[in-house]
């Protein structure tokens, strides 16, 4: 299924494209309530990715579903602009 390219958008969706199949839209993921600022690929588990959003949440997604598997409410005010996975292979 990989490599996929992800795009977070002001329409509150994440879209993925299958680069090897002519960049066709593979899946649309929905679950945020504001603009999506960042998408991070999980290098330890290529089936998951995370998003940061102006709705003050970080969401973790699985490629097998179109809805988030986990939501972290990060702030009472402000927004979440960036999320990244830890690259150390000895840490979860």
UniProtKB/TrEMBL annotation:
Give the organism's phylogenetic lineage. Eukaryota, Fungi, Dikarya, Basidiomycota, Agaricomycotina
Task: Output this protein's name.
Answer: Probable coatomer beta` subunit
Cellular compartments per GO CC: COPI vesicle coat
What InterPro entries does the database record attribute to this sequence?
A: Coatomer_complex_subunit, WD40/YVTN_repeat-like_dom_sf, WD40_repeat_dom_sf, WD40_rpt
Organism the protein comes from: Serendipita indica (strain DSM 11827) (Root endophyte fungus)
WD repeat ranges per the UniProt record:
29-71
Assigned keywords, A-Z: Repeat, WD repeat
SMART domains xref list: WD40
Q: Which SUPFAM superfamilies match?
A: WD40 repeat-like (SSF50978)
Output one GO BP term: retrograde vesicle-mediated transport, Golgi to endoplasmic reticulum
